[in-house]
Amino acid sequence: MWRKDAGELHLPEEDFWVFDSRVVAVLRFDDEDVLHDVEVITEPAEVLRYCQVRDAAVHGSVPYDAFAAQLGTTN
C-alpha cells in the first residue's frame, strides 16, 4: 500500500507488528529510518486497537502481484 493510500484510510504512520493477536511491537525510527527502539504492548485494549488498524490496512490493500506490477517488478 502506498503511504498516500494509508493516509486516506486514516491509518497511523507508526510501524508495528502484531503477534498472535496478543502482543504488539511498535518500531521507533529516527528521521533517517534507523531503528532505535521497540515498544512491546500487551495491554488488551491497546492490542485490540492495533488489530483493528491491521484489519483496516488489509482491507484497503491490494494483492502483492498487483502492487509489484505498479512498481514494474515481477518478483
TrEMBL record:
Residues 2-68 form the DUF6879 domain. This is DUF6879 domain-containing protein. The lineage of its organism: Bacteria, Bacillati, Actinomycetota, Actinomycetes, Kitasatosporales.
